Amino acid sequence: MFEAGGTPRAALTLQLGSYAGFVGAHWWNLQDAALRCESEVHEQECKVCPDVLYRAGRTLSGQETYTPRLILMDLKGSLNSLKQEGYLYGDMKIDTSVAWQGNLMTHQEEPPAKNLFLQDLSKLEGGMSSDGDFSPRALPLSKDVSQLPTQLHVSQKGHQLEGSVRVWSDYLRVRLHPRSIFMIHQYNDDGESSQLEAFGQGESLLHDPTYLEELEDRLHFYVEECDYLQGFQILCDLNNGFSGVGAKVTELLHDEYSGRGILTWGLTPVIDNVGVSWKDFYRLMNTVLGIVHLSSHSSLFCPLSLNGSLGLKPEAPVTLPYVHYDASLNFHSSAILATAMDTFSVPYRLHSSQFSMVQLADAFNSSGRKVVAAGAAVPFPISYGQSLPDALCSYQLAVPWTPLSSCGEQKDSCCFAQSVVLRGIGKENHISNLPPGSQPKSALHVCETGEEVLGSYLHARCPGTFSTSYLLQGPCKVLAPYPQFFSALLNKQGFLLDKLPSCTTAVESIPVLTALQSSPTLHSALYSLYKELHRVDVRRWASFFSAGQQVHNENVCLSIRLFGAARKMVIAACTVVAILP
């Protein structure tokens, strides 16, 4: 998205929470893969502009860098081998000189071990830190991809990381600016003690002047260097105390940066349905309060999760026909959500786009609707050489995407507005190319452009709906360390094969179809949360917490006081998203 004079409209990304870190790591790896493969895109093709999300800079030694415009908040223990200040500015040596003249004994903790992917990445980049060890992010990355070693463009060595990924930094391949990582040291990422588990705890963090001033300082650093800032995209955990952090962050952005877009993705990992515990009660309360507060301060809010529902007993996670993911692994589920987000966000990231963040949000909330539901086909099922009209006509009454907002399957085509993006279909397959004199199979087969095919399909399926659609030839690049959990029926480019191949190859790119919709399914999902809230005995849980659970009493009291208000607020939220017949 460009302003007059060719300056791109920048967006600042904020990641809040551990699962947001998982999704964000895949998200930035996808951006990195697209940047490295940028030379493969045809000149005439509508391109995604990396400058929307990235910033150019220089290290202290004058070397050019190209890093995400990102503020990332997480808890102590989530970085593993990644340094909080990153690697771009070299090793930050601490002055250890002391006045003591006697004998000294130095105890140095062993650095965390790196998995095979990070070790191989270090060797490929050839970066050496001052201590002689390979560093996975030691060399600055220039925006000019022609300067990168050839092997970095094409490397797709198989890495089975499922057993070695504990935190999101275990598979992050991009370098971060020293101002990106913002650690909350008073809470732990894992373990049973010092957990950020309640909405009230998260809210109170930004009541602390130390954290608030640090956040504001980082915001000013990134915002003030932008010629044109279109807004903020926020990835926020809904299921834990980061929902409270997100509530205060969006409130701050809404108050201080009026007129800028705030697009918030509320993220929830797949939840095991093994009975109801006090943690499920907290998760329900965090989710409800998060939805209400985040949507009220955002231009547009979308819950994202592979769970079938978000209640005390979540329904089974969704299935994707050609992806065999392990629902228990955040490494897997977050990859799917990041892939969908990479395509959802295309409208405000193109070199030439009709919509900024604000305009995209306005398309949905012109009648007060600020919450949207998401759906995606990852990958979009189309055979090699098949035309787009043939692929779309194979769907009769069923929608061609899987719901990703824990709202259940859409039973009809009714929705108020929708934004649909399809990528990865070559121009030669956009239309039918019927032989002269042959009878067209459908109205789609007489369309003259791919854009017309997609627009006609959406109009026929959702008559009366305000629809915007985008068709890109470039696919989503799924290079290492993206998990190889795809069906053996997909070829290297993610297209369907007629039969199982004699030998399998790694999938390097996939076509993807996504949809954001203002849909009646949202009303049903939020109303079910409202009914669950009414069934919860708050007094019973209050006495349970006071009987020895390791939580902060003041935060429990704050959360329970908010709990009663949340019941009324959910009713209001249901009214906001309801689609009247």
TrEMBL record:
SUPFAM superfamilies: Tubulin nucleotide-binding domain-like. Coiled coil: none annotated. Keywords: Cytoplasm, Mitochondrion. Residues 164-350 form the DML1/Misato tubulin domain. GO terms for cellular component: mitochondrion. The keyword Cytoplasm applies. CDD domains: misato (cd06060). Involved in the regulation of mitochondrial distribution and morphology. Required for mitochondrial fusion and mitochondrial network formation. This is Protein misato homolog 1. It comes from Gopherus agassizii. The lineage of its organism: Eukaryota, Metazoa, Chordata, Craniata, Vertebrata.
